[in-house]
Amino acid sequence: MTNGTVASPSRRLPVDDEPASIARAARQALDRSGGPIGIAVAAAPTVAFVVANALSGLTWAFIALAGAAPVVLGVRLARRESLRAALFGLAVAAVCALVAAVAGEARAFFLLPTVLPAAFMLLFLGSLLVRRPLTGLAGGPRDWRRHGPLRRVYTVTTLVAVAINLVNFVLRTVLYSADQLAVLAVLEVATAPVLLTLAAFTLVAARRAGSQPTAVP
């Protein structure tokens, strides 16, 4: 008994009994994203746009994008990927193309992907300020906020997410200003593995932290 209160008994949160490893969790996250082939297929419209623009100009870039998008949709559905994810990818490509068409320049295709990391960074940072780290809200156990080790895991991984989005935003802004479309396309493809690695690390760390007993306030 301390200061007139009685400490509740320590407890453990239920966790997956299977051995957790970053490599295994990364493979699972990669599989859920379609694997290396799925990532390559999802990047095909952007690659087609950039290559066609470099070879023949903006008009042909739009034509290449219009030809690649439905093919990619068909391939993703043939691979039995989520219809919602496939349609979302198609919609994002269409919006990016619309922005480029309105602006009248190819680099505007990357305007939305350049701005989004800043929005995500503010979202993650805001979740920390209100003490509700977003990585926990996105996939943690229902009562993880009462579990000290889990709170620390989700706080740290949310901070890492803030840093990743900050670096992503700065790099994209510099490349966008320099009109480096090819490098922007590479960066867009490379972002997915980085986020998958963070998700895998969060999963492993949360499983291990969840097995540690902690006093419930």
Descriptive key words:
mainly alpha, two-stranded antiparallel sheet, disordered N terminus, 2% strand, 8 helices
What overall form do the CA principal axes indicate?
A: globular
Sheet with most strands: strand arrangement = 1-2
DSSP strand tally: 2
When the domains are counted, the total is 1
SSE pattern: EHHHHHHHHE
Termini separation? 13 Å
Helical proportion, percent range: over 70%
The residue ranges in which pLDDT falls below 50 over 5 or more consecutive positions are 1-20
Q: How confident overall, as mean pLDDT?
A: 82
Q: What is the number of helices? A: 8
Rg for CA atoms: 21 Å
How is the biggest beta sheet arranged? 2 strands, antiparallel
| Structural classification | mainly alpha
The portion of residues forming beta strands comes to: under 5%
Explain the layout of strands and helices.
Blueprint: E1 10-11, H1 22-32, H2 35-56, H3 58-78, H4 83-103, H5 111-129, H6 134-139, H7 148-177, H8 181-210, E2 214-215
Antiparallel strand pairs: 1-2
Helix pairs in contact: 1-8, 2-3, 2-8, 3-4, 5-7, 7-8
Protein name: DUF3159 domain-containing protein
Keywords: Membrane, Transmembrane, Transmembrane helix
Organism: Actinomadura alba
Question: What do you see in this structure?
Answer:
This protein is mainly alpha-helical. It has one domain. Helix content is 74%, strand content 2%. It is built from 8 helices and 2 strands, in the order E-H-H-H-H-H-H-H-H-E. It has helices spanning 22-32, 35-56, 58-78, 83-103, 111-129, 134-139, 148-177, 181-210, and strands spanning 10-11, 214-215. Helix 2 runs antiparallel to helix 8, helix 3 (58-78) runs antiparallel to helix 4 (83-103) and helix 7 (148-177) runs antiparallel to helix 8 (181-210). Mean pLDDT is 82; it is low at 1-20.
